[in-house]
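Would you mind giving me a polypeptide sequence along with per-residue structure tokens?
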Amino acid sequence: MALITKIREKSGIAAAAIAISLILFLIGGDIFQGRSSFFGGSKDAVGEIGGETIKYQDFQKKVDEITQQYTQQSGRGPGEQEVAMIRDQVWNQYILDLAYGKEYETLGLTVSPAELVDMVQGTNIHPSVRQQFTNPQTGQFDKNYVIQFLKNFKTLPAAQQQAWVNFEKSLSQDRLRTKYENLLKMSTYTTNVEAQKDYVAQTSKVDARYLYVPFYSVADSTIKVTDSQLEDYLASHKDLFQGQTTRSIQYVTFPVIPSKLDTASFYNDLKRLAKELAIAKNDSAFAMMNSDVKTPYYSTLAEIPEAVKGQLGNMTPGGIYGPFKNGLTYSIYKYGGIQKDSLFTVRASHILINAPKGASDSVKATARKRAEGILAQIKGGASFEAMAQQFGTDGTAQQGGDLGYFKNNGGMVKQFENAVFAFSGTGLLPSIVETDFGFHIVKVTEAKTNTRYKLAAINRTIAPSQSTMDEVLRKADAFAAENTTKEAFEASLKKDKTLLMLRGDRIPEGATSFNNLQNARDIVRWAFNEDTKVGSVSDVFQNDNQYIVALVTGSTDKDKVKVDDFREELTARVKGDLKAEQIEKKLAGISGTLEQIAQKYGAGALVETATDITLAQGVLTSAGADPTAIGKAFGLKVGKRSKPFKGEGGVFIMETIKSTPAPAIADLTLYKNTAKMMAGQRTSFYINEAIKENAKVVDNRAKFF
């Protein structure tokens, strides 16, 4: 229920700046008087923005400064993903300063000191501040903690003071961006004509009968496509095939997995730990010290793995249970009994019918009526999960409305939380629940409980020994040394069927991962190196728990689009056009009813009927959502038949047999609000892209990092 439970931060570069600033601030030293946390062009050009060149030395200096802050405050250097975040923050800061900054200056947009105070300790607290100064015991934001922190600010280490200054700067930048976006958002609106068009598209209906000959009914082997035809199609459809600089590779992976000897040693170690855990005086401390993955000693049902949860009823205090397997991690538990918590935990599902705060009375009335109708259907025996998938309007819909576990700590909006935690047992709440987001049909799937379980858990991950890793590396090295050409590489794959070969197609220059390979930046950089050509074979790369040898099989250039860059897609489209010509020519010489035409045409011709088709969500039986065919059905007069025409997936002859116009409507507010909401969701992205385009942003970071 992300839309309800979490504070939605701005998408885009301002949010990235806040995120990294907040991280640097959070990992700082003691605050609140000793507490460790709140509560728990040229060759050296990295890029160009607004006509200004970003030199590598300047860029790296800023990266080094933030990296140093991170290291000082966390006591360790940043990992690969954290370094990537820092680089992104520095780059995004350049965009904010050089691209957005000019827009703000032109419009006279600023954030005053008074505004900043208001965001940190005033009446309009910024979500990032509110999130971090929330008391975990009450689940409520407490402004007094902010004031206490600021009073002690000058007693903090210099590095943490600087981190807070940077954090406040990011808040100001986020407010500036919000102001700028709101100016543009408020300048757009939906006219009555547009709203009427949306209303008609959703409510007017037609029934149609049609003959459909799908392209797949014509064998591909009977259609010959030449390169000249592909080139002609590409030349006349350039807008559909935008170029991108990429590399394609094949790679052989040599997975490093524990040997039988490694596994036997691991089990013996696990048995020893189980015996020692049984007699440990401080079992929670012993478990923590001997775990690869730390888990809390006191756990609610929401925090306990399903396999363990199913055994709780059979556990007795002091008993050792397990091992329980989760991937490569094995867990053993010592059960210490139960404890009552001050908070309750529940699991529930919901179906949200949108009616945002501020919507008109007519919109709310329509949404309430719809929600009550769905509730009545569920009470009558309809599946809650199926109805959620069909009618839910938030991100939980595809999961049958499942919200997972949550506590009564303010994580949910107040009206929703009060209704759920006032309910006893499991089942459907008898009435809909109204919140600022709309109307909810709610089902409690696991009853509320404030029971916490004492579980000292030792979690150990089985890993290969050094000798096992060395042996796999030896095999990978031998493969790379023996197969230094494309021909040898491919010959070895054919010869040795035990080798695992995978493909990475059209990998962009700045990628840090592809397929299921994370932290694969070194492979991507090698593929894009000036000395690496198509057909080059790499040395051995280590990637997490495997070794990899790669072969470059292809490359594309954004400025030089070739047929080979899109050969499969181009071939499919040209074949579709050629099949359509063949089918239309054959149908043109046949007359009679649709059934007679289908019979004379022969195999592949289908005659079907579709009822209550709408322009917005029309679906045909075999052809699916074919917009050309659906548009034709609405364009024909009742009783009229079309000539054969090409659709998305085949050739049609369409007959409209019934038309039901949209009823007259006096209030188009619902459709205006829906259009406004959808436009608002895209605004941040479009603004960001427009500003970058206007500033002619050139990002060359992939050549350096």
Observations:
- The mean pLDDT is 87.
- The first strand starts at residue 45 and ends at 49.
- Residues 158-186 form the longest helix (29 residues).
- The CA atoms of residues 134 and 140 lie 5 Å apart.
